[in-house]
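Quarterly update from the structural biology core.
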Amino acid sequence: HYYGHGLKDKVFLMFPRLGEERYAEIVADKQERYEVVQRKGVAVVHGADDLLRAAAAGGVRQAVATGCSRAYMNETLNKLDVNVRAYFDVLVSRCDVELGKPAPDLFLLAAKRLGVDPGECWAVEDSVVGVEAARRAGRRCVAVTSGLPVSALVGADIIVDSFSAELLLELFEH
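Predicted structure, tokenized:
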């Protein structure tokens, strides 16, 4: 599975002998496609805004730890159909760490910036490498099936296709 890796890592994993010129073409094509998606807006997973709001109201500090660049992270957060940015105390992107997912670096840095132990955190992930990174960071993990089969996300503690108040209660019970 290449889903969850940054673009550079994906390209080099898929095509290890690709030249710089062809790499630049692929990056430009991907950027063009991404901009089309961004113009249309991005929908959040059903219930995500309620989950984030309830967690914030309960005093839970929250972070974004994404394998994409800071620019893509900010563009995506700005294009979401629900304003969730206010719920996050910390934003960490691939630009902030040496190694991207599946290395634990993003999650470890997010926990450090939140001032909490990584083992006390939950990660919400939608990729195989994200689940692996959460595990390597000592975090418990909720996986969202957005685009992947449940069987690909079996390393997660909980697998959902949307968020609910019941999920929040289950997270606090653990």
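The longest strand covers residues 140-144.
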